[in-house]
Amino acid sequence: MSQNSNLSSPVLTGTRQTMxxxxxxxxxxxxxxxxxxxxLDPLLAASPGFPYIVLAPPLDKxxxxxxxxxxxxxxxxxxxxxxxxxxxxKKSYAYQKIGMLEVGIILLKSWVTLCGENSEGANNCTTLExxxxxxxxxxxxLKKIRPAAEENNEGSLKTEQGKFDHLSGANFKFMNYAxxxxxxxxxxxxxxxxxxxxxxxxxIFGWTFHRTVSLAHLSILTDRELILxxxxxxxxxIKGVRYGGVWQYIRLESIRSVLLENAENDLxxxxxxxAGGDAIRKKFAAASKPELEQLRDKLQEMLLSF
Length: 306
Fold this sequence. Notes:
CATH topology of the largest domain: PH-domain like
Number of strands: 18
């Protein structure tokens, strides 16, 4: 055996490979990879203390191959540095100008997407992908994007959460998702649950086969935002229930219009048009038309105040 073969790198165990996919909190300047330091130095110089920084490693086995990102907090904005070869791409978003936040969790795969006006004045979206075991590291950023009321009124929160108790029989998972999505000080005005919609596709030897045109989703209108919760097609159904989900939080002031349209298969489509973004379409059964008209009218009336 040659001498070079003895110097080969050790094989990484499965546990070690998994740990390498975890995001980590950077606690000192020495821990910051050198490639990011020139971009962070001005922020560090203006900060009274060491800011909250998270390093998200690249993930080869995610929903798609991702790149390494470093996320840094400042009093008014979130700064995202992305490694691209030997270059660094930088985006910054003022927390108050992030109009839509999306949070997705599918088994060990999670992501956060921020949409809003960046520091250059353009509407943009940025996605941060990470192993679900690192979810706690991103909570500080999410709290600043969706700040709760300053008063600690837990009694009021429980009252609002109780407005979803009627969902326990129809979709227990979505009931819990809805309850956990609310913030202290937020008031629920209306919610509409749509179970999975399947329509006949073809018949063979007397058997009718169906196709899914819409997975289960829940729309919640509060006094400050529109919350959309849905199942994800990439999550496999086990005994009729899909693991995980996707949450979209849209600030009311960032919504430009809301429409109710007819869709194929005698369905209805609720269309939400956010500022500077693509329209979001949610399909509903025709039987939900009265609830959807009420939701549309409430939302349209609220939008007039912005």
